């Protein structure tokens, strides 16, 4: 056996002997009445420290959960902020802008004696129903096969153009007959012929109205957008005598 092996064996044996001596010494100390009180106090301190460590571990776990929750809230807030900023920077140009219908007109001497009465624009006698624009939530809910490459702005642009056709048509229908020119009267007569019992009291247009009052192309993309508008319950179709009527919902 090499000398290095003997030295390692001796070191190992001596370490074991030292450990045994310490155990015997500690056992003898535990039997010593003068040291029992100190050992008991040390034991209580060890138990207290153990409980304190457990409490600290529980608190650390709770703080880690709170940290993860705050991170999720921060991500959600940042995502909402980015979406709001995107919407602010990409407001569609076709959205209606607020208009001022009343103006205050001062009247010289009357201004000194009585309050100035506002002069307001006349309201239309009859309201014309228009289709509401598609919301971003509705756009996201449209099946992918139905949307294809169509964008949110393209769909709402068609809604806006269809509303123009509806307003133009019913403005003519609400005109007195005596004030109509010959071309307008021809349109009026066509509108009346297209009315059926199923459309009485409803607002609708046909493809001829879209051609007459808008620059929309009645192509494949237009009909794809119509499918989306039907899916989102903006229009519905009434068919009779070979004519499709797009009723505003």
From TrEMBL:
The keyword Ligase does not apply. One of its GO terms (molecular function) is microtubule binding. Keywords: Coiled coil. InterPro entries: SKA1, SKA1_MBD_sf. GO terms for cellular component: mitotic spindle; outer kinetochore; spindle microtubule. It holds the Pfam family SKA1. Residues 49-90 form a coiled coil. Gene3D superfamilies: 6.10.250.1370, Ska1 microtubule binding domain-like (1.10.10.1890). One of its GO terms (biological process) is cell division. The keyword Coiled coil applies. PANTHER family: SPINDLE AND KINETOCHORE-ASSOCIATED PROTEIN 1 (PTHR28573). Belongs to the SKA1 family. This is SKA complex subunit 1. The gene is Ska1.
């Amino acid at each position: 056996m090499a000398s290095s092996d003997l030295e390692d064996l001796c070191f190992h044996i001596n370490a074991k002997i030292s450990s045994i001596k310490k155990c015997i010494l500690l056992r003898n100390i535990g039997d010593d009445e003068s040291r029992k009180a100190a050992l008991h106090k040390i034991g209580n301190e060890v138990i207290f420290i153990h409980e304190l460590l457990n409490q600290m571990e529980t608190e650390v776990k709770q703080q880690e959960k709170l940290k993860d929750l705050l991170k999720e809230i921060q991500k959600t807030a940042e995502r909402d902020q980015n979406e709001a900023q995107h919407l602010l920077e990409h407001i569609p140009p076709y959205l209606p802008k607020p208009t001022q219908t009343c103006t205050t007109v001062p009247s010289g001497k009357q201004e000194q004696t009585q309050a100035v009465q506002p002069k307001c624009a006349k309201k239309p006698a009859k309201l014309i129903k228009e289709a509401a624009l598609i919301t971003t939530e509705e756009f996201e809910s449209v099946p992918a096969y139905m949307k294809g490459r169509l964008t949110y702005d393209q769909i709402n642009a068609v809604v806006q153009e269809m509303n123009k056709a509806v307003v133009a048509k019913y403005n003519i229908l609400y005109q007195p007959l005596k004030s109509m020119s010959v071309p307008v009267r021809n349109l009026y007569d066509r509108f009346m012929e297209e009315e059926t019992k199923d459309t009485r009291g409803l607002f609708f247009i046909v493809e001829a109205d879209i051609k007459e009052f808008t620059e929309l192309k009645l192509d494949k993309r237009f009909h794809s957008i119509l499918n989306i508008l039907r899916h989102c319950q903006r229009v519905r179709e009434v068919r009779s005598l070979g004519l499709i009527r797009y009723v505003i919902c």
